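PT: before anyone asks, these are the final sequences, not the draft ones from last week. 336 residues across everything. Please model them as a single complex and drop the result in this thread when it's through.
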Amino acid sequence: MKGLMDQRFGQGEIVISKVDDLINWARLSSFWPLGFGLACCAIEMITTWSSAYDLDRFGVIPRGTPRQSDAMIISGTVTFKMADRVRRLYEQMAEPRYVISMGSCSNCGGPYWEHGYNVVKGVDRIIPVDVYVPGCPPRPEALIGGILKLREEIRKETLMAPKAVERLLKKQKA
Amino acid sequence: MTTEEIAQLIQEHVNVEVEVNTKQPQHEIIVKNVDIEKVCRFLKSDNRLMFDNLSCLTGIDNGPKANTMEVVYNLYSITKSFRLTLKVMLDRETPLLPSVTSVWKAANWHEREAYDLVGMTFENHQDLRRILSPDDWEGHPLQKDYKEQEKYHGITVKYERD
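LR: through. Structure below.
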């Protein structure tokens, strides 16, 4: 099935859409994660960008600075020494920002959950996480799955707070 | 050259007491902590030995019961193809010993690692900082009676089970 933009436009026509849909569509189709990796999961993440899996087709392009990124893929073991840096990078990112936690270590400490005194037992202890990708390490397909899941979440977002709409409607009725 | 012969050479030239342990398959020379730098300098510079490569330097904690710590030096002579294991026994309360960074530059990071994880202090080391743990980490993780801290920068260290 052809999308709206694939159809031929004549002259002078207009497209009507919701601001929410337009903005969400823009956000989810140009998802720019910060280019960094922490441990073995990073190898799988890099592979996901290789020609075999081709993350570029989703508009997912790594950026070299947090100020141009709107996403973070935490790929690998977060040590306490690194935790401060991860948190600082997250804080430097522009909003709206999204976080994918990739692999067992980042999700919950992985194999280090009991005796790893140096490992943060889940990156959600330092920054909020939107999507968890399970696996140790997850295959590139799993990471793509996580990105598609996040895209669905972004598609559901709305700029309008439902409460504000309710209040407006109430005012109109009164 | 056997470990005994090397020990003999050390005693003749450096004028220090050393002990030779040949009970284990890996023979070792045990040196007093104050003598280690002198002994290492001799082992490197002597023409019959030429131990020009410090392959590894490790710290070991034997626990509060034994109340000792050890530093093990694995040396290799590239020109002569000799291997040698040196050992320094330390008191666990005051684990102090001279640095060998002036003999082999490779000792720099190794000594920092031993300091960071096991907690012995190397005197005259020019930059004895932690190398693996963060600067403000509490305690030395490879000590036998190490207890991990509860929180680090507000993050709970332990994994909580419900």
